[in-house]
Amino acid sequence: GNTFGGLIHSYCSNITLVNCTLSHSNARLGGAIGSTNSHHTWIDCLFHDNTASTGHAYDAGGAAYLWGSVPTNGKPQCPSSFHASRTTFRSNTSPYGSALLLQVALQAISIADCTFESSDTSSQGIITYNGDSFSTTLERTSFSGATAVDFRQPSTSSIRFVCMQTPSIRSAVGLSIATVPCSPSAPPPVA
After folding, report:
1. Which pLDDT tens digit goes with each residue over 30-75?
2. Counting Cβ atoms within 10 Å, is residue 149 exposed (0-12), middle (13-18) or buried (19+)?
3. For the chain, what is the radius of gyration of the CA atoms?
4. Of 82, 81, 65, 68, whose CA–CA distance to 30 is shortest?
5. Distance between CA 90 and CA 85 in Å, rounded?
6. pTM across the whole model
7. Contact 148, 168 (CB under 8 A)
8. Residue-wise DSSP of 5-19
9. Rounded to whole angstroms, how far apart are CA atoms 155 and 59?
């Protein structure tokens, strides 16, 4: 397998994936996608059976490993963000982040109407954060299998769960957690 991104490797890019399937790929960091300082928008996609497990101590991100750099002289090297909607992550595996490993400083993270299915109970979380100052909104998103969200270190991050049940969270030291009910006009939560 590759070292970084089994199918897609990006740096300072805008990546938009619509109605696609990324599957059966392997890399040390990001089984399907390895990305540094990039904007990602994924709509109506399926990530399945991707692996970040090459036997290295720091294998991470079964479906994707997304890294946003720390600003230099007050400016990000390249702005980075992650937005996913109506996307399914199924049977991806990795010791850290069986679906996603979000590293350091992504400027914005939003996940809406997505499904995360993991049978990888050895993973530290379906979504693993490794860094600080993340601001994440998850809306109408479902998790099944392993621990849903894992923060690898004490964090000043915030996470909002909108119109959904709060999933299992590991290592939430310093984490600000908000649960927002459905608005009367919002669709019902994903079961």
Report:
1. 999 999 889 999 999 999 999 998 777 678 899 999 988 766 676 6
2. buried
3. 15
4. 65
5. 15
6. 0.88
7. yes
8. -SSEEEES-EEEEES
9. 22
Burial of 53 (0-12, 13-18, 19+ CB in 10 A): buried
Amino acid present at 157 = S
pLDDT in tens, 82-120: 999 999 999 999 988 889 988 866 778 899 999 999 866
Tokens in use for 178? 């908000």
What is the rounded distance in angstroms from the CA atom of residue 188 to the CA atom of residue 175? 26
Predicted pLDDT of residue 1:
57
Q: How far apart are CA 112 and CA 123, in angstroms?
A: 23
